[in-house]
Amino acid sequence: MYQFVRSLTLVIACLSAVYSAHGKSTATGDDMIGIDELAVILEERHSTRIFYEPHWFEDELFSRTLAQLNPVQAMSNIIRGRGLTLLEVDGYIVILPLDITEVSRDPDTLLLTIGDPSQYGRYNRATLSGRILDGTTGEALPGAVIYSETTGTGSPADREGSFSINLPTGEVTLRLSFVGYEDQHRRVNLLGPGAHDFFMFEETQRIDEVTIMARRAEENISRTQMSVITMDARVLRELPSGIGDRDILESITLLPGIQSTGEFGAGYHVRGGSNDQNLVMLEGMPLFNPSHLFGLVSVVNPDMISSMTMYKGGIPARYGERVSSVMDLRMNPGNIDEFKLIGGIGLINGRLHMELPVISDVVSFSAGGRSSYSDWLLDRIPADELVNSSAGFYDISGALTISPDRNSSISLFAYHSDDAFSYGEDTFYNYGNTLASLRYNRVLSEKFSMNAAGGISNYGYVVRETGQVAEAESYEMKSSVAYRSLRGSLLWFPDGNHRVEFGINAISYGINPGNLSPAGSGSRIEPLQIDRERGAELSLFASDEFEITGRLSTEVGLRYTRYLYLGPGQTYIYDESRPRRVEFITDTLSFGRNETVAAYGGLEPRISFRYGIDGSSSLKASYTRNNQYISLVSNTAVITPSDTWKLSDPHLKPLTSNQFAAGYFRNFADNMIETSAEIYFRGLSNLTDHRDGAEIVMNPSIETDLVNVSGYSYGIELYAAKNSGRLTGWVSYTLSAARVRSESEFEEDRINDNNWFPSNFDRPNELVVNTGYNISRRWRIGATFNYYTGRPSTLPELQFPHGDRQLVYYSDRNKYRLPSYHRLDLHLSRHETLRINKRRSGYWTLSLLNVYGRKNPYSVFYERDRAAPGQRASGFNLYKLYIIGRPVPTLTYNFRF
Amino acid sequence: MDRLNTYTCILLVFLLLNSCREPYYPVTDSMDNVIVVDGLVTNEPGMSYIRLLYKQVTPFRDLVALRNATVYIEDDHDNIYPFSFTGIKYYPSPSFRGIEGRKYTLYIETEDGDVFRSDPQLMVPAAKLEEVYPYRTVKEFLYDDDYGNPVREMVRGTQVFADLSGKGDEVLRFRTETTLLLLYNFYHWRIPDIDVYYRWKKLDMTGEAGINIPRFDGNYGQVTGHTLCFMPASKMYYGLDPEEYIYRKILIIRYYTLNDEAYRFHREAHRQMTSENKLFDPVVSQLPTNITCITDRGRPAVGFFEASPVRSETHMLVDQSYDNIFNFIRIEDLEHVPPRGSMLNEKPDFWQD
């Protein structure tokens, strides 16, 4: 009750702030004064604030003697008989109309009545549906939870903020929870099925700069899903700063089971899977390269994101395409009420994001962008090696949302990113993502809502080499991916206990693996176009989430995919009794346009269980099977812009993953401390690995440089977090293993003689300690410590002469490990204002990265001795590359208008 | 803002320019007692040799010559050819001459009793060099100067290409070794006479371009545009004094035709030599070996025994700009010419006018 009133009060306070007691004065006589003057006197004498709508008392005068009373007595006298009421909140006095809400309520208890009174007594149970929204902006709050304290059941809001919960009829107490927002307790008299939207309001003081989890306190216990991470807009705003800025993709690597590719790498590995096994979706469209500046910064502008949900296990049936994880990023639709401007200035880039209501409550627009400063700064560095070098990026995005009525909305989204890097006049890289989507949501009835979406995602890169090689060998190479998707789904609440979702998803893939052309008139390079690849994927999915008993709930899902690899193109037939090599091609088959070259498919069952032990602990288990029809062909452990995407074809079968996971979740101290332990096992089949010395780029028969491998990974993830109080943070530890092995009968295709060996992403020990402490309401300090076992590496064991050259004998694949990675970062934040009604707010964050200056190796490489013209290099030297090898201070400023 | 600029510049230099690198000395298995084999037999007398090294256990763990081993080659006609230790790491055989179409197996018996054996190596039919042709171009070099500072230089010169053909439809695999025979003069003015010095030197120009990596283009038996070498135009790159003048540039091209295993070995070696991934992990190019210890399966051996036919041709660059002539012409074999020399007022017999 108090929470509700307080929250309601605060929003009224916001709305009425501009009309507060500091406004006009209407006093006309010595003994009689206007409401504004009276309020000012009371505020000054009693150090309080009084909020009201001035027009309620327009042209009225009150006795000055009222100012001798305490504020509550004075204002109570004034409002008597006016249909107004008075509330005290945190020492403030707020005047409210008695009919402030749309609800039918008892004036004393704020009892909310839902359902048709004429149906009273007809139902034993009924479904309450609706949306949970930000009371200030109207934005949906995905992940917010409505929870019945009477029955112990709850329901999370989905991406649109919609929820549905089945409750016994009669009076129940509901609790609305969402981290960063005030909890609400609502007494509801449920007469029958009905709908109601709930509004929640941000807390007046930020809780935790580095809180990752955006959900209600005990959601980890009560929801059926496991292995899921959610962040809302507020949490995203408060992510810890990396080298340039806040970074969503970097921040999630602080969570168990998710490991960064390298220093600040935007790439990440989930439970031993490779980068390309992670689906990163922006407004439903996949990002094929989520990194700027070779992984230093992710392409996701945190300002434009309203929510992030990531599944690393128990992936719902509506998601497919990749086998390790799904990250669903939703763009901020814009503010339907007022103009907002958000921005920040960091070390490497600056950013700006604006939201404006085009037609109030109907059409909103948001747009933003980021740009690096590095390009023009490089031009100003007086270094010979930097002449004509450049490195820069930008990304822009926009979203238009139209809500013609309360039950429907149309969203149009567009995004473009661009990276350019050149070193001297030698090599020029350029790559970028372009995404666009159109989405339509509609609530069809109390039981049905629908979602339809379509969009594109294009990725392409260009590499041009003109200098270091002879002019005759100058070339330009292009590669690209074109992705098209149509999707429709229905959400159905047949009764109060079931939440059924089913739909269809059609995807078209088009890949240009490589186009080589001469660069410049002096080049003698022969143009070469590798056959383009085309594929289509059709998926049907259905899922149902329901309670089996009061303690046992489940979500069962099934996804069926059918994949076709389509012509036109040629396919080589290889001699099956010999290794797959070009000289053993026995036949070449040609296929016409849209002719099926290869077809794959299958069922992908998904199932999750939750057993509630008591109110503070639960057991969960899940099984997920996924198929993946597109892979990144790479011969490095880190992301490079020239890695090539490849569709499943007659030679490369789709990757299949089967993951089992189980976990125990327990909260302590009234949910202040949250703990979990998850174990998982994942089997992978039809993985591909490269042969030694594989040529990935411009290889017309790339299958000859790839070998088929299988793999598995398993691990345990321990997590303990303190989510509230002055000291917050978490400790996570993961113990895991990831192994692969080749399966070839031919010796030259075997890696490590077909024995199991650590995959590139096997890092057995991972420890993260992330803490923050609120020194005061304005100042906060934080620290983040990471430790990872070094990743596997293939190192040279012997350098020996052969002829007049020095050659290297390498160890077995991934026989060794790079040194362990560990780093400590410190952060200090200062917030300029703590007042929620302040129009402008901002905060500074000073970080010291890599406090003790450890030189964590990013990669290890050989470099030849540099030979002068006419001379031959005599040998190699081994080096390690590290991104930062000393303490690096960074300062960022973020602001909102 | 100036401070920010400076700071960001420093950081970017660190991030982008290899400034954040340092030598790395990982602890790896010592591979003590490993045998390193560098063996080559050809169809040309006097060109076959076996070089054997092994890694000492103590005290320095260096690769040293494997002395006093019994080394011989056996062909598939049961002929045995001994190779004798000469004291400088080599076991040469002045008389051995391989025959195309035969298979050769290397045997090594060490003093401690272990026996190493190679896989049988087929000496495939030799390829034919069809044409050698030049192309004027500019190439950029990055090398360290005497003080260890990187120097970037644009060098004008000639890129040399070759076309080769094999026999039948077999995939043509070969490697080349290119030697530049430079004929140059030095004039000593001694009034009223002139002393003319006729000088020459040989330079290895193979670089890393010696191996041909065939692409599947439907034409297995021919390779066009194989890069032989790059010849800078300026004499300073050949170590000539300003008073010395280049008279002729002659290329001595040796090309070995490879079987499948030898090709794999040289291909991986080539990839090792050309793999420079500064920001990312290098492409691991493991070298295959065809040597195994048959008496102790756990004793490691690396390296390769190769049986390849070799041919040699000598081509002279003709550059007569006024006649718009710029090509190579084949001349008699000059492989026998000593590595360097000088004659006063008398042309050596191989001098090309």
How would you describe this protein?
The complex is a heterodimer of chains A (897) and B (353). By secondary structure, chain A is mainly β. Chain A has three domains: 2-97, Phage tail protein beta-alpha-beta fold (3-Layer(bab) Sandwich); 112-222, Carboxypeptidase-like, regulatory domain (Immunoglobulin-like, Sandwich); 229-896, Beta Barrel (Maltoporin, Chain A), CATH 2.40.170. In chain A, 6% of the residues lie in helices and 52% in strands. Chain A contains seven helices and 57 strands. In chain A, strand 44 and strand 45 (727-742) form a beta hairpin. Chain A is globular, with a radius of gyration of 30 Å. Residues 1-29, 100-109 and 204-216 of chain A have low confidence and may be disordered. Chain B is mostly beta strands and 353 residues long. Chain B has two domains: 35-123 and 261-307, no CATH class; 128-258 and 310-344. In chain B, the strands form four sheets. In chain B, strands 5, 6, 8, 9, 10 and 17 form a six-stranded antiparallel sheet that branches. Chain B has a six-stranded antiparallel sheet with strand order 20-19-16-13-14-21, with no helix packed on it. In chain B, strand 11 and strand 12 (150-165) form a beta hairpin. The longest helix of chain B has 15 residues, at 2-16. The N and C termini of chain B lie far apart (67 Å). At the A-B interface, helix 7, strand 50, strand 51, strand 55 and strand 56 of A face helix 1, strand 1, strand 2, strand 3 and strand 11 of B.
Q: What assembly state would you assign to the polypeptide chains in this entry?
A: heterodimer
Under CATH, the topology of the largest domain in chain A can be stated as: Maltoporin, Chain A
Q: For the record, give the distance between the C-alpha atoms at the N and C termini of chain B, rounded to a whole number.
A: 67 Å
- Tell me the span between the first and last alpha carbons of chain A: 32 Å
Q: In CATH's first tier, which class of the largest domain in chain A applies?
A: Mainly Beta
What's the domain count of chain A? 3
Helix proportion of residues of chain B, in percent?
Answer: under 10%
User: How many individual β-strands of chain B?
Assistant: 21
Rg over C-alpha atoms of chain A, rounded to the nearest angstrom: 30 Å
Main pleated-sheet profile of chain A: 22 strands, antiparallel, barrel
What's the helix count of chain B? 2
The sequence of SSEs of chain B as H and E is HEEEEEEEEEEEEEEEEHEEEEE
**What would you report as the Rg of chain B, rounded to the nearest angstrom?**
24 Å
Tally of helical runs of chain A: 7
Pair with the most extensive interface?
A: A-B, 92 and 88 residues
The CATH homologous superfamily of the largest domain in chain A is termed TonB-dependent receptor, beta-barrel domain
Number of strands of chain A: 57
Instruction: Give the DSSP E fraction of chain B (strand runs of 2 or more residues).
Output: over 45%
Average residue-wise pLDDT of chain A: 80
